[in-house]
Amino acid sequence: MRVLITGGAGFIGSHLADLLLEKGYQVRALDSLDPQVHGDSPSRPDYLDPSVQLMVGDVRNRSDVAGALEGCDILVHFAAAVGVGQSMYRMEHYTSVNALGASVVLEEAVRRRDSIRKMLVASSMSIYGEGLYRCCECGDFAPRLRPSEQLERHEWEVRCPVCGKASTPLPVPETKSLFPASIYAINKRSHEEMFLVTGQAYGIPAVAMRFFNVYGTRQALSNPYTGVGAIFASRLLNGNPPIIFEDGLQSRDFVHVRDLCRACAMALENPAADGRVLNVGTGRPTSILDMAKAIARHLGRPDDDFMIRDQFRAGDVRHCFADCSSISELLGFRPEIEFDRGVGDLCRWVATSTATDRVDAATRELEERGLTR
Ligand SMILES: NC(=O)c1ccc[n+]([C@@H]2O[C@H](COP(=O)([O-])OP(=O)(O)OC[C@H]3O[C@@H](n4cnc5c(N)ncnc54)[C@H](O)[C@@H]3O)[C@@H](O)[C@H]2O)c1
Ligand SMILES: [Zn+2]
Hints:
CATH topology: Rossmann fold
Bound molecules: nicotinamide-adenine-dinucleotide, zinc ion
Shape: globular
Low-confidence stretches: none
């Protein structure tokens, strides 16, 4: 069985490649080695298993995609321009790589529909927008982004739209309404819809996995646009305090990349996943501040020297963590890597890598465009 992973030289793709090789699959990767991810003179990453057949090419290029799909039984589409903030000023680039890229990949997959047994696409928690909340008086609600007047007053928590009282965040199920709040998130919603609709129309089993915040080794350390864990670690190693927006108590669901890849392999191998969208997270909220502290501790740095900006970024949500009951009931998936162990693993790796800290420049890009206040 041969699997094509687009974006297979990247963070998640390379880990999935390792797992699938272990399971006896042949793995091919189609990857453009984007300099923002792979550095200014990109080459095959050292971490990529030598048995992975890497084809350097662009998902928007039909002959690159056709060549890569030749002889493949399974298609995993991970190639993407990844970065919420950046997508708000490089709209054309994001939409080109993400929407056009997926269209070319799907057209070529459809041409080989007799041999392709399954397609899996990476979606993202960002498509939810704000998470789900409960008001003890008025019940559950799925709000839009917090109003900017509220954020200008530095009131960060989500309030009940009816009575105005403070609310409690709840885990987000796949059925929550989608309010994507960035071009990237809109692109990811398109990714899942494009794959599921095409799969349905042509009878190719397809599944969309809504990844929450993935962390682990190999996350691009010099890419200031993705991966809060890698960004904090890279700041600390360069002697700079991590930059934290709002008050740091906003929460996310950090899922370790190896757990996430196990979930993807389960979805590839189990027809129960066909036609579904599935959250992949841990179900556990962790604040951004706790992530920063855990990283600082593992890197042997003080765990209170952070730059808490008391500022907000356009489009940021307060709390979002996964309700994982679908994937657990359907596929029997349960995360195994405990947060502290996962962060330790990430930090040991970061300590042996070189990270260029480009966070200040990236933050300036947002400031200049009025995307942070
Ligand atoms: N990391 C996360 O927390 C997270 C969360 C939700 C969803 N996702 C999704 O998971 C997938 C993988 O993300 P990742 O974190 O491994 O990112 P990554 O940047 O490490 O990997 C993406 C890979 O795609 C390649 N690529 C970019 N443009 C390309 C193009 N035009 N043609 C071919 N290859 C191209 C890059 O070179 C890179 O190797 C993406 O689709 C992303 O949207 C990631
Ligand atoms: Zn209320």
